[in-house]
Amino acid sequence: MTPSPPLFGTADASYRAAGGIEGIRRLVDDFYRIMDTWEPARTIRQMHREDLTESRDKLACFLSGWLGGPKLFQERYGSISIPMFHASWPIGDAERDAWIGCMAQAIDLQPYAPEFKEYLLRQLRVPAERIVAVQRKTTPERPS
């Protein structure tokens, strides 16, 4: 009988499925390359500095710990609250969808197992939705 693979989301199974930090950095590089060139992402790209070096490192470090690997973000940058970190930018449904769209395309380019690709995108929707929900609570209604 063949042992079943570890379940994604337990211990470092997701981190390993992503190819460790090297695989995560490839994902992040593809993500930002797509953000640079995909028209629906123009608005979210403008929220970043021209030089994406620090953004790339922060996202890769965050994903490392978030996927069960080394807590690189905390080691380099300190603790983070994803919704509060993004509170200074106007993020609504369109921005969330653009971010998820970039990430979906980047994930599709990776040599991940199909099951992990589906799992990862589903899991990334959770913080994306949370950011929008926090924005809705803290931003007063704008007149139409």
Automatic annotation (TrEMBL):
Q: Which residues form the signal peptide?
A: none
| Pfam families named among the record's database cross-references | Bac_globin
The keyword Iron appears for this protein: yes
Q: Which UniProt keywords apply?
A: Heme, Iron, Metal-binding, Transport
- Tell me where on the tree of life, at the top rank, the source sits: Bacteria
Q: Has keyword Ribonucleoprotein?
A: no
Q: Sorted alphabetically, which InterPro entries does this protein's record hold?
A: GlbO/GLB3-like (IPR044203), Globin-like_sf (IPR009050), Globin/Proto (IPR012292), Hemoglobin_trunc (IPR001486)
Q: Which family does it belong to?
A: Belongs to the truncated hemoglobin family. Group II subfamily.
Put simply, this protein is called Globin
In its UniProt entry, the species of origin is given as Halopseudomonas pertucinogena
